Queue: 3 jobs
Job 1
Amino acid sequence: MTAGRETRSDTTPPADRILPGGDGLGGEFYAQAAQTGVLHLQRCDDCATWRHPPRVLCAACGSSRWSWQPTAGRGRVFTWTITHRATDPAFSEHLPYAILVVELDEGPRVVGNLLNLVPSELRLDLPVRVVLDHRSDTVALVDFAPE
Ligand SMILES: [Zn+2]
């Protein structure tokens, strides 16, 4: 690793990111964020348990009744991986970059890119906030920046 390359701290995610598909509950997850400007997760209408990734039934009570609910958009770094070698050339100029697993204040863990911090400065439990990367009327990607 070249120390001079580990300086990415801009607030602009790569424009050439691969976008997720728009079908099913996964598509609804990205569309909710795109259309409201707020990260939404499923929440059970019977026992109020939050869940992610999206699924049909509540793992806590088995209910099929749920709704998309807005999150506070805050959490803490649970774990991460740093990519130093791009398998897709579209990402080669963004190396190294970190992908985080963040435990939201609501409980579920969500995956997203790191913004505004060099990957070598990551630490467990670092407080972060959600930054949505609006790409279309049906897709907003989830990123995280330090509080
Ligand atoms: Zn439930």
Job 2
Amino acid sequence: MTDRLYYDDSYLTRFTATVREVKDGWVRLDRSAFYPTSGGQPYDTGVLSGLPVTDVEVIDGDVWHKVEGILSPGQTVEGIIDWPRRFDHMQQHGGEHLLAGEIYRQLGGVTIGLHLGHDEVTIDCDLPDGRLHLTDEELTALEDGVNGRIQADAPCRCWFPSEEELALLPLRKPPTVKEHVRIVAFGDFEMVACGGTHPSSAGQIGLVKILDARPCKGKIRFTFLCGQRALMDYRDRFSALARASGLLSAGYADLPDKIQRLKDENHSLRLALARVKRDEAMAQVRSLSGQRIIKAIFQGLGMDALQEAARLALSLGADAALLASQEDHGVLLLFARSASLPRDMGQLLRSCGAKGGGRPDFAQGRADTPDALDKADALLASDQA
Ligand SMILES: [Zn+2]
């Protein structure tokens, strides 16, 4: 079995080792500080004698390194861990212990799994009585509890206890493995079995921010960020808020009310504009009164108003109404006729290259350009000829 150097020292970033076996680009060493993907924590990257390590897995107790380049059995290699990536994982993982501990103490929730993703970190929890929702006050209390622990900066200790000692430890939940149980403890208030890498004290976690807690597959899923990730998130949100504040000339606390007012105002303006466009369209149709075929193109009128305009055209005595509304993407079409004209308007619409259909006397559709109007007009004219 590979001697896992990170068990004793998660701050070890350089080590020497001997290559034991090489297989399909994967390398097994006698000892390694590289963390293999396990327990929800992703693998470390870095180099072995200058060659990039792009994946690390554990198989039957041995750590295997995917190496881009050739190494040979017996060779002595120097390993260097990508420290920013590792420390990020340590912060997230340490924060997860404290958050899971706080969920347990404050709410009696049991954490099921950790997912340490590229952007976000999640844990799934079973809460007593199958609760799937938390109040804002409960979430705030969890955050305050965790960050209070971080600020108190309790030390983190990792060790392999004897069976006798293990039996007496106040673990938050029973270990999932039977042998070589490794214990991770923050101060005297948080203790679980874990094989991951953690900061040597709670203070190095920096900050834990819960982003979300929502039901997921019968459990409650907490999404959170720790340490540098939380700072980056704060920075991103701050800059977005600062931009919005500048655009709306409002302090960030006033933004929600200001945005709501703008939305309401926008809604009223849209309704007013639609009314104006409709009135204009009706006036235009009336101005064409007396023509046998009323043909018109409107801007952003919408289908409801097009239908109304078509009915008006027919009520004014036209044999047919060929109407279009130019929208942001394409053109809406409405072809309607009186009982005196023996033409299937749906068929006419399609024979002009448009998509759509409807009743023989009242059809609607869509086209890329308003050219269909002229084509339809020409076809109706040839009917009369
Ligand atoms: Zn852990």
Job 3
Amino acid sequence: MIRPATALGVAASTAAVAGWVTPALLRARVLRAAVCPGLAGVGRPDSVALTFDDGPDPQGTPAVLDALDRLGWTATFFMLGGQVARYPEVAATVVAAGHEVAVHGFSHRNHLVRGLADVHRDVARAAAAVTAATGVRPTSFRPPYGVLTMGSLIAARHAGLRPVLWTAWGRDWEARSAQRVAGTIGRQLRPGGTVLLHDSDCVAQVAGSWRATVAALPRLAELADQLGCTVGPLRDHGNHAQAGSES
Ligand SMILES: [Zn+2]
């Protein structure tokens, strides 16, 4: 159910972004941060937003929640609907611990190889799964692999979700050490940035990759201190308010 009027509405409301949205361009991290900061996850200059994708996971998510508790941080969890359906009680613990939930799609498939109706169904189904398991209606969306297509934008709008990517990642899905994860983040992170990590290894290249993620969090605390930033969820980051017409 993709109405042309809605597609036009998305194009208009995403302003200049929609005219040139291509996955290749949006995957250029530095460029998207400069041209469409709200979408990239650029927010208040005294803030770093911390986000986790691919959960919930019965092992990784509790370990991440414990680490966040020790640091006194809250974060945003972009959940896979399929994982939520398998582990609804883990999804519920994320909200119970005070964190923000968001949508990463139902299955972890690149939107480039899916039809409009398929993407639309997937995002709506994922949002419904997150809401059912947590009792909270999510407001943000990040597509699998960060590949945001026009179909992604339309599906997100229909589900009442704003797309948010990231400005710095830890490549923790392939990393075997906290040093490597923290070093990768450190080379990219700037004040106002959004960090992408993973609380699940369900699509990672390294089994138990979340262990390096968890171990890297204290180093992220040092990085944030050096930047003069607090660490928190996207809901406190101000990225869409700053982005104005783009969201
Ligand atoms: Zn993912």
